[in-house]
Amino acid sequence: MKIVILLSRIDQTGMTTNTLDLVDGLIKEKHDVYLITGGPSEENNPRLDEIYNEFHRLGTHIRTFKTPKGSALSRGITSLLSILRVLYYILKIKPNVIHSESPYMSFIPWLIGKKFVSTLHVNDFVKSFKYKNATHLIAISKETKQYAIDLFEYKEEDITIVNHGVSKSFANSMSDDEKVKFKKDNNIPQDKILIGFVGSIEKRKGHDLLLKAVEHLEDHLKEKIHVIFLGSSKDNTTRPWLDNLIETSNTGHMVSCFDYQDPKPFYDIFDIFVLPSRLEGFALVVIEAMMSRCCAIRSNTEGAYDQIIHGEDGFIFENNDYEELLALLSTTIEDEDLRSAVAKKGQEKALKRFSIEAMTKGTIEVYKKVAV
């Protein structure tokens, strides 16, 4: 099939990561993929340039448009010209399927009466004139499916749940010697149980909940651990918030922070992965951590019960409840055998259910429903 994917910007969110993984899977299945995008969300950002180049390396046909900047008049003119450019691309490519990964681009295929697929990634999405209901919707979890039915009045038969998937390469760990070197190069303690978090710096991600739980650990447990935050501020305003949290919680001596970069080496050294988010869509980072054989602990926000069976292949705690998180951390820090057994089962599940191959297969089945 000839497939057009609409992605407003290439940024450091799960939507971009998911799009990259999906494109990888589709091209491996011999489909012809066109990405229409506004390009990297920031200039001179090595990580975004790397993602953009990875789309190229996979063999994606990339078509770009300008994103609005400047005065209201300038933004308006740019928006209009960009819409016309995207319409031109679609009409020239003549795709079998249009997939709007970015929901606020869904009005574009609607304008020209084309059937299209859209993906609902999160449950904080609000109605807008730019959003149009898809011919068929991909929901990434049970919760996002219900959200689409309740808010956008989708019929159940017009929604398919396709869980996000990640590369099986996450299961290939660094050697012990490489781990020692990576820790040394990044001033990470060699002899501590490492508790990791990967995600953007924003309140909904729950950094404060993790720090509060760590602050209330018994002293003998605190001595055993080190916490690593991997992630950047979306607007350069939230890093001071995190720094202040660390300072006021008296955890600075046991916390390291790194700007967002390739997370794979970090997953390889994490013993425990924690996602304390207050709001999520499906949280690819949990799957990446499970695939990397980390013991995963997450809040019971969207996607939790699609990903984890509590106590078997991961752990789930009540959203916003730092005391439940504290109890789970205490148990997993103390019990190495439990930690290892849960991590092993989590990896086995991720390899079986949450691979790019499984996600691609499910997505192609949806495409067949609307293909021309």
From TrEMBL:
The answer to whether keyword Transferase applies is yes
Q: Which UniProt keywords apply?
A: Transferase
Occurrences of domain Glycosyl transferase family (ranges): 181-348
This protein's source sits in the domain of life called Bacteria
Supply the InterPro entries for this chain.
Glyco_trans_1, Glyco_trans_4-like_N, Glycosyltransferase_grp1
Single GO term (MF): glycosyltransferase activity
Q: Which residues form the Glycosyltransferase subfamily 4-like N-terminal domain?
A: 14-167
Q: Name one Pfam family in it.
A: Glyco_transf_4
Q: What is this protein called?
A: Glycosyltransferase family 1 protein
Supply the source organism's classification: Bacteria, Pseudomonadati, Bacteroidota, Flavobacteriia, Flavobacteriales
